[in-house]
Amino acid sequence: MLTRLPLGPSGEMGTGAAAFPLVGAVMGAVAALPILALAPRDALVAAALSVAALAVIGGALHLDGLADCADYLAAPDPSSAERARRDPRVGAAGAAAVSLVLIVQVACLAALAGTDRWLAASALIAGCTASRATVATLARWVTHRREGLGAWFAEGTSAAAAATSAAGLVVVVGVAALAGRTVLPVVAALIAVAVGTVALVGLARVQSGATGDAYGAAIELGLTAGLVTAAVVRP
Fold first, then answer.
1. 92-115 and 43-57 are packed helices; what angle lies between their axes, rounded to 10 degrees?
2. Which of 203, 230, 224, 227 shows the shortest CA–CA distance to 68?
3. Whose CA is closest to 218, among 162, 157, 140, 136?
4. CA distances in angstroms from 208 to 40, 76, 170, 201, listed in the order given
5. Judging by beta carbons within 10 Å of its beta carbon (0-12, 13-18, 19+), is residue 4 exposed, middle or buried?
6. Residue 184 scores a pLDDT above 70
7. Which residue among 21, 22, 111, 172 is buried most deeply as judged by most CB within 10 Å?
């Protein structure tokens, strides 16, 4: 659900929702390595490599969901909207949405890395954690379709897993804030949660139920909002 990294065979695949905050934190930490290594030399290049690393680790799964949702929203009527969402080809709206999100992420990380590379790393980890924990926590409560990946995810995520995901978010972000001695990760995480929630609930309403694409779009929009907030309020 979150990465293309193989975890081996399983007799019955679960959603793994309880581990979403931990997986998000690990993804953010790995993606932050180019910033930690290269930011003193060139913050923009470092930020671009970090965003690229995050896309590779995640297999661009959530970017694909964002593109499909953008194409859906740009369609003139419900029937063509659903065809656009299911079409494996990316339309103009989807391409624009993905391009803008990646540009904004790179710009925000570059601004943060130019100020303090550790600050940029903590914001990235907090954003990745919060954006993924949000969809796992909401899966039990948001309206979803009766078929497809969104339904499978919602039905396979227990209330205990959702609660564990929320608790994991608090722990990871709290550790990041204490380690960096700054509230910036907390602020970034709060905005990521708020925007991710609005995006998922809004898409569920527009699409007559949350889809797998809606979950992916909410993750990308939440992460982007968290990074924008961190870049704006940075010291």
1. 130
2. 203
3. 136
4. 48, 16, 31, 10
5. exposed
6. yes
7. 21
Tell how far CA 155 is from the center of its chain: 21
What does the pLDDT look like over 192-202, one tens digit per residue? 999 999 999 99
Nearest-angstrom CA–CA distance, 105 and 113: 12
| Cα–Cα distance measured from residue 121 to residue 31, given in angstroms and rounded to the nearest whole number | 9
Q: Which amino acid appears at position 23 of this protein? A: V
> How many whole angstroms separate alpha carbon 208 and alpha carbon 200?
12
The answer to whether the beta carbons of residues 163 and 17 sit under 8 Å apart is no
Alpha helices in 87-233 (DSSP H): 92-115, 117-138, 149-156, 159-180, 184-206, 212-233
What value does the mean pLDDT take over residues 127-149? 89
| pLDDT (tens digit per residue) in 31-47 | 999 999 999 999 999 99
The pLDDT value given to residue 153? 85
Q: What per-residue confidence (pLDDT) applies to 8?
A: 55
Q: Could you tell me the pLDDT band of residue 12, with boundaries at 50, 70 and 90?
A: low
- Collapse the DSSP code of 40 into the 3-class scheme (helix H, G, I; strand E, B; otherwise coil) and give the result: coil
